[in-house]
Amino acid sequence: MSLSADAALTRAEWQGYLFSARPVRRELLSLVPPWSTRAIGLRVHRNHAFESVASVLSRYLAFAGISAELAVLETVLGRTIQPGEQVRQLQEERWDSVKHIEVLFMVEEELGLTFDAEEIAALESLTAIVDHAERRLHPH
What we know:
Number of strands: 2
Order of helices and strands: HHEHHEHHHH
Helix content: 40-55%
Distance between the termini: 36 Å
Oligomer: single chain
Shape: elongated
Strand order of the largest sheet: 1-2
Structural class: mainly alpha
């Protein structure tokens, strides 16, 4: 990874946040890399220990020159989702009410959104979740 002088200085500044004895979540979430990253897919077999680091993981990966797309729903459902596939909560045996909250929690953490109870109840498909998140992130 070849960095410009400004990006190299920014990366050096990140070290104080990333490798602090007590990292501060708010500070980590404010970091935005000015350098390019290599995209990878990351399938995480989640457990409770992962919950606390999921939202800040991208900053540590960016420091290493990597960006990752977390396959949250694939992990929850335990199967690969094909591009364009219509995935609905009612059609998936493993997508129960607990997994529904888990999926939406990960989306909230990853995108910095908060869903209210009405939104949570209405987001019953992958398409609905993606469309709703895009509208919230990019209001027109």
